[in-house]
Amino acid sequence: MTQSTTTLFRSYLIEEYHLTEEPYYKPVGDEIELFEAAYKQKIPLIFKGPTGCGKTRFVEYMSYRLGQTLTKVKQTGDDGAPRAGNIPLVTIACHEDLTSSDLVGRYLLEGDSTVWIDGPLTRAVKVGGICYLDEIVEARKDTTVLIHPLTDHRRILPVEKKGELLEAAEGFLLILSYNPGYQSALKDLKHSTRQRFVSIEFDYPPRDIEAEIVEHESGVDKDMAMQLAKLGEKVRNLREHGLGEGASTRLLIYAGKLISQGIAPRRACQVAVNWAVTDDPSVQKSIEELIGSIFE
Amino acid sequence: MTQSTTTLFRSYLIEEYHLTEEPYYKPVGDEIELFEAAYKQKIPLIFKGPTGCGKTRFVEYMSYRLGQTLTKVKQTGDDGAPRAGNIPLVTIACHEDLTSSDLVGRYLLEGDSTVWIDGPLTRAVKVGGICYLDEIVEARKDTTVLIHPLTDHRRILPVEKKGELLEAAEGFLLILSYNPGYQSALKDLKHSTRQRFVSIEFDYPPRDIEAEIVEHESGVDKDMAMQLAKLGEKVRNLREHGLGEGASTRLLIYAGKLISQGIAPRRACQVAVNWAVTDDPSVQKSIEELIGSIFE
Amino acid sequence: MTQSTTTLFRSYLIEEYHLTEEPYYKPVGDEIELFEAAYKQKIPLIFKGPTGCGKTRFVEYMSYRLGQTLTKVKQTGDDGAPRAGNIPLVTIACHEDLTSSDLVGRYLLEGDSTVWIDGPLTRAVKVGGICYLDEIVEARKDTTVLIHPLTDHRRILPVEKKGELLEAAEGFLLILSYNPGYQSALKDLKHSTRQRFVSIEFDYPPRDIEAEIVEHESGVDKDMAMQLAKLGEKVRNLREHGLGEGASTRLLIYAGKLISQGIAPRRACQVAVNWAVTDDPSVQKSIEELIGSIFE
Amino acid sequence: MTQSTTTLFRSYLIEEYHLTEEPYYKPVGDEIELFEAAYKQKIPLIFKGPTGCGKTRFVEYMSYRLGQTLTKVKQTGDDGAPRAGNIPLVTIACHEDLTSSDLVGRYLLEGDSTVWIDGPLTRAVKVGGICYLDEIVEARKDTTVLIHPLTDHRRILPVEKKGELLEAAEGFLLILSYNPGYQSALKDLKHSTRQRFVSIEFDYPPRDIEAEIVEHESGVDKDMAMQLAKLGEKVRNLREHGLGEGASTRLLIYAGKLISQGIAPRRACQVAVNWAVTDDPSVQKSIEELIGSIFE
Amino acid sequence: MTQSTTTLFRSYLIEEYHLTEEPYYKPVGDEIELFEAAYKQKIPLIFKGPTGCGKTRFVEYMSYRLGQTLTKVKQTGDDGAPRAGNIPLVTIACHEDLTSSDLVGRYLLEGDSTVWIDGPLTRAVKVGGICYLDEIVEARKDTTVLIHPLTDHRRILPVEKKGELLEAAEGFLLILSYNPGYQSALKDLKHSTRQRFVSIEFDYPPRDIEAEIVEHESGVDKDMAMQLAKLGEKVRNLREHGLGEGASTRLLIYAGKLISQGIAPRRACQVAVNWAVTDDPSVQKSIEELIGSIFE
Amino acid sequence: MTQSTTTLFRSYLIEEYHLTEEPYYKPVGDEIELFEAAYKQKIPLIFKGPTGCGKTRFVEYMSYRLGQTLTKVKQTGDDGAPRAGNIPLVTIACHEDLTSSDLVGRYLLEGDSTVWIDGPLTRAVKVGGICYLDEIVEARKDTTVLIHPLTDHRRILPVEKKGELLEAAEGFLLILSYNPGYQSALKDLKHSTRQRFVSIEFDYPPRDIEAEIVEHESGVDKDMAMQLAKLGEKVRNLREHGLGEGASTRLLIYAGKLISQGIAPRRACQVAVNWAVTDDPSVQKSIEELIGSIFE
Known about the structure:
The structure is a homohexamer.
Chain A: E1 10-13, H1 31-41, E2 45-48, H2 55-69, E3 89-93, H3 100-104, E4 105-110, E5 113-118, H4 120-127, E6 130-134, H5 141-146, H6 148-151, E7 156-159, E8 164-167, E9 173-178, H7 191-194, E10 198-201, H8 207-218, H9 222-237, H10 249-260, H11 265-277, H12 281-294
Parallel strand pairs in A: 2-9, 2-10, 3-6, 6-9
Antiparallel strand pairs in A: 4-5, 7-8
């Protein structure tokens, strides 16, 4: 059990993680204004939209932006507490085995004594950060029920194992996301949960904006980026012809990155887009033709 | 595992939490009289009604009101016990993973010794508070069975892990809630449980009262509040046309709050009402038309 | 984790709980004679019958009565053991998460050492009390199997975690209850279990006796009690018209108690009987008419 | 957690429990010879037969009888080990939650050190007793698989948590029982298990022998016993007319015991036989008529 | 928790268990040559075949035989390590509750410190023994996946709880068995598992060889053994007429053993063969006739 | 619990395991170039393809090759950290019981103190190795969700039990594999997972290359290897005629190895190919004919 490794990696406390550089984000509509209005009114948010359309990036951008623009209420010096300019962002990927203890915290035996370890949600509640529960419909019922009191006017988190109630710090905001085209009837978000949130619907960016993003992120030139964005658009149109879900912007960027490493565009699009979105030979054939028509 | 945060949040013991300000509540019928009669007779209650129609707010209001009006039996000085004016309110959101230990308590190892931690139900039983089990039909069978002896004339809570029986303190009352339009056959409340309670049915408030509530809570003016209440009424009528559940009063308040932040009413109603209640494009279209007809 | 509460409640050891006052019970047939014959012959019993027809009350009554009438075999002075006049009654509400450890006992870590805590069944076996397993069909198979050796001529409880067998003390009797109109095929009591018991079937009391009970328990006058008993009878007749289960005597008593607090009889019967037994609007309408025909 | 009870009960170590008096058993065929032949050849046995037909009693009888008749191999003095005349009998009621640890043993923390506690099967293996696994088809697969090596020519029990193999002591024999008319396809005994055993089929005793048993066990006279045996026979014939399983001899004895306490025969048979075997009103009616025809 | 037993039994460390006498085994084809070729090439094996056809006995025989014939690489003196002549055989009966920890090992608290206990698979890997996983299709997926790296050219066992990889000692071989006529679609062996093994199919031995085995193992004479083998053959032919699985050689030996104890052949075959293979009355009748035709 | 074994085996820390000899690998297309481009761009990869077509071997080859060709960034001397020439390869076989703790790590009690043990994924993240999650579709949802942040631009692993985030070391790459012809709808890889990876599809090697591999690995001569490769090709064509999956290259090598031990080719192919790929008698017959036609 020797651990003979020099530190090749970096580690952070979850609640101290915040973005130090402005994330690249291209707004599509009034999503920034809506977010700011909700944040001021302490109204929790749901983001709905397909895989890889930019929801996570938007949350990162807003947590950075709000840190820059909000008044400096929290400037508390060198005691380790968050300062203006830093809105901690706590992201939690939901899944069916996530327990409420995973979110709220648990007792751990440490040597001879038992120590309480706050979960990521409790950490966000205490420091007044943004807590982003990604793919909430995957979560077990105890998780979704747990967040209800945080969306009441009292903004309370019950920590039942400690017999305590926590009132969320100023600045705390809860955000959920899910993909409505994706979820099954079994994994529907209950009305008693969803009616506690304002919901913003997202979609893939329009071709021009997507080309800008691909160019910026992958290093290909403007023309190639435009062609990749065009491919993305066309593949998404196949969704009515047997394709489960369209290609994400991320996959277009991957294709661009492989191209910038010298892989031929058609091969790059085959592995980064076509084979990535489907295993179905007939759908693969259709996408292959799309790729061929763009990158002759 | 350092926890370098100054205290930006507040915490309470669960059984000491009570309301210090009168919650805003507009009665619709004789619900206050019924509650008071049941409370005096120690008859446990079930509240039935749709999501967000005000059941939780009513419990909060009654726990505050009873604290003000009841005789001062419990005025016990500065020993930390509840005083007249304070009826502790313990709220528990039920879900399918809630165990009886979550309600009654458990042993925790603390350093070298084992400490018993009372669960929230036990805390309410001991201090004579109101215990509100929200969405009881979500609870597992062991939870619902556990409360049976508390509804007998003996008002007893068995704490089996300690080999004890607790007789509830004067003032203790058990209240359940569920949404009958919501629950499935699988999650029906058993007769052996439901026949231990008097049941009060709730519905959304009538338009005038709802407008008053929206105005009071969101800060919009009377006219805007009336229009939002009208929208709520119309959306609820869609329930027979494919909408799972009507818009709660809470969502109307959210719309009002966004409007008071400068978001245009139609956009505010889109994100706070329409997208919040449904993912179905055709239902969304109908609601969009309703919104358009009210906020031209 | 401070527990700043003065003792507003009372607690007992499970096996020391017994009734100090005679419970109010009106016999309907020869159930008292049957119980006494079985108790003398150490034959375990099953009580079958609908929700709230008085099975639990009968067990309480018999445990008090037997304590008064049996010879004083167990008069053992002030050592804490049960005395004549006291037959401890241990009631266990069964549910699908009740484990055999919940019944028999478990080891708990206490400080540096491990302590065995007897479960409620073991406590009843040791002191020679009556153990009443309510709604046995809800129990898991390991629970029902566990009681088999206690119904053999040897009357033995295996405590496998301790590697021990316990022979039940003189006076111990096992009683099960269930509701045959209620249980599903899935939750049938196995023949290898049920053929170890003599079974007594119970039903709601006839109108005259039920009126006496309602009058005695709720404080309304004889006429009102008769009308409530009449309502109960009529509601039970609806069982063939879509009502899952008839109204229990308990609900009639609740209605009486609300009436004695000044609530109008029709409203009292609406919340205590009608809404308590069903969520189905058409059945509610039928019951409303019944109520209207009795309390014009 | 004080345990203020004088010892009103008796307790034994599981492996030291043996019968000190000859159990009353009336052989029906050559079952005693078959058992003795198998015991000498160390061939494990399966007993098949309906509920309450005497399988358990037969095992008890044989463990007593073999203790009397076998040569005194194990007479080892006052060291606590079993002596001739004592073949320990370890009975385990199987159910779907019985784990292999429940059978083999587990580590328990005791104060500062961990102590291994042998399970009942391990105890039987070590002392060379008879281990009777009742209703084996209810057991989980890990339990049934666990016993396979004990039925090989090597007669070995793997105690995997200790990394050990135990060779069974001389005298150890494994016996299973199940009810073939009862089990579902889901709970079938696998061929890889059942083909490790010689199987003996049991049925209810013929009328004369059953009457003798009822008379001996319940205290009624010969005539009454004969009538009860006749009732048992007739009720069993109803099995083809909707009755799940016939009345066991045990139930006839219960009826006899109630009769000997002064309960009228028809009432005694109603509660001890009719209501005990079925909840179905039409089957109850048929049995009522049978009872009426015998006890006019 | 006193354990007052003198040692009537013997115990071994799992990895030190090996056969000291040559097991009786009659080869049917070239199975010995195939096994030796695979063992030299370190190719893992699957044995397919019906219940009780001799797969386990063959593994025991080969482990003994290889210990005798292989060069004496492992002769390491009196340090407790295996010597030539001893190839440890570790047999594991698979079932659906067998966890990977059961195979690989786990940490156990022992007094104040935690001790790692190797599981049986780890023990076989370390000493270079034969590990026989019986009825592998019963195992959970984590178990079957666990053995994959042991069948790679690297022959590695990941012990993830210790963060280690173990390279198997020279001599280690993995053997699985299952019954293809038995398994359901649900319990199919995955191709990613089965294509890691060479598979040998087994069947019941031909009549002459089986008679030799029965004679040798049960003590009956040659004629009787021949008749029993003939019965086995005929019963197996019933498999197409409703019999789940044919009678194993083991059952024929049991019949022989009962006969050698003086039980009449027809009765012996009834309990050891007929009732052992089926509960179905019509199949029992057919087998009864077979028995009658052989043992008139 | 004595462990009397001399060390006959070797053990490694998981994160220090790397290949010291170049694995034998025959490229089929541009898979090496694609892998290198993705590795430079830190794009995670999915390998799709049938059982035993060489995916695992390819990962081993690339981890060795990249260690040889990459610039010597990580040459850090004798402190135990990885050096150029060594890219650690951490392989994890996924299955439905693999928890996120199995991947990330857990606290273990060690003597009096609790020690955190990194899981294999955390080890790969920290040392900058290649982490290969084999058969990812078998994994539980919590496992697949866990890897999402490692595929974001931030390359972060949340270690929630420690309240930490780890940024992956330079050189870390995540690779998944699955078999698209194999997986059920239930075990589909979610789009939110698969669209985070570039996907490369693999198939069995063409006949000439496969023959070279079989010759090299099994020791048979070129002709025999060619015949075995021909058999492989023909068996795979049977996939449309009831065969679940074609024979892997590995099975052809097994056949070759048995042949090189003197087993006749037809018998070797029967046990190593035919019986290994199917239990279905009619498919076995077809394959037997194929074998017969090649090895007359």
